[in-house]
Design goal:
TIM Barrel; globular; Enolase-like, domain 1; binds magnesium ion; about 40% helix; alpha/beta; binds 2-keto-3-deoxygluconate; 13 helices; three-stranded antiparallel beta sheet
Length: about 400
Amino acid sequence: MTITAARVITTCPGRNFVTLKLETRGGLTGVGDATLNGRELSVASYLVDHIVPLLIGRDAHRVEDTWQYLYKGAYWRRGPVTMSAIAAVDMALWDLKAKAAGLPLYQLLGGACRENVMVYGHANGVTVEETVAEAKRYADLGYRAIRLQSGVPGLASTYGVSKTFGYYEPADAALPTENLWSSEKYLRSVAPLFEAARETLGWDVHLLHDIHHRLTPMEAGRLGKDLEPYRPFWLEDPTPAENQAAFRQIRQHTTTPIAVGEIFNTIWDCKQLIEEQLIDYIRATVVHAGGITHLRRIAALADLYGVRTGCHGATDLSPVSMAAALHFDLSVPNFGIQEYMRHTAETDAVFPHAYSFADGALHPGEAPGLGVDIDEALAAEHPYRPAYLPVNRLEDGSMHSW
Ligand code: KDG
Ligand code: MG
């Protein structure tokens, strides 16, 4: 199954995506996602300038060897640009292998470990009332797990709260939007949100929350403790995770489960948090953590320590990543939950896919391969538009994590 052509397609059907498409001599095609939000063109260049020339003429069946070749062969290891580019190749190769076998990818990964993949949706609003009403709408749609993000009284805007109803897209401007942040104001706002949500939604639905890397370990420990009466499914990214030992302090103060890892790129970023059992869910994704091949290795390490998966699934991960994640989720023994922030109809039209939602869960479908494609003619109608993620400053003007 010789690779004869490789194209990198950058498109913006409402938001930017970078997709790698491989063609083989026998006429099969495979797709991989290479989207790195706000830094898309760097991965596109890495692929076009440094990886595509290495792929032409290779045997597409050699998934592991190609992964090792691109990882070890570059000399410069790890990092989001390198690992997203390797991920795109890896996804496309698995897609090809499964298409050649005539099977949905999850069958090649060991087959289904469960009937479907429980997902969580995003409920948000400017006020507690709006957020809880939105969460109720999700519960009525059948969701069994819902993330709650609400506006913070006294702050003009915050992470996770949409300006337009329904869809939240933080990479919203040609230059970064500046937000103001106060951990004190934020910390006062979260427990009342959870209290109101439990009053309205009851106890049969899982509730989640994303701190988005903004607190100190002590602040995170206190928030975890404040939320314990409402039994959150998880608190996500409590502190910036470069300092993994800091999670020991969070663990000493709260029993609220912790989820981390959406910005991790390799198993080395996950190692200490998993081995010391400092987290409950690992959120590494198929696109930013080196593809299906590497994510399975991370999941296997996590399984040894009772850590479950909770893959990142924001809209900046294309439907190609979502399909890949679902095949992974269905087949991995220590699956926990999958994030599902629905794409717009415009995006779905560019990426026709076989996965579907029912009863709070997704299923990747039975189409051979990943079960997703890119409509290149339609993609060409949506040219790339520069879009940055926002930045955050404290109220005195100092820079803070966004
Ligand atoms: O590109 C950044 C987004 O993917 C991130 O802000 C989304 O934190 C996120 C989440 O949990 O979905
Ligand atoms: Mg997050």
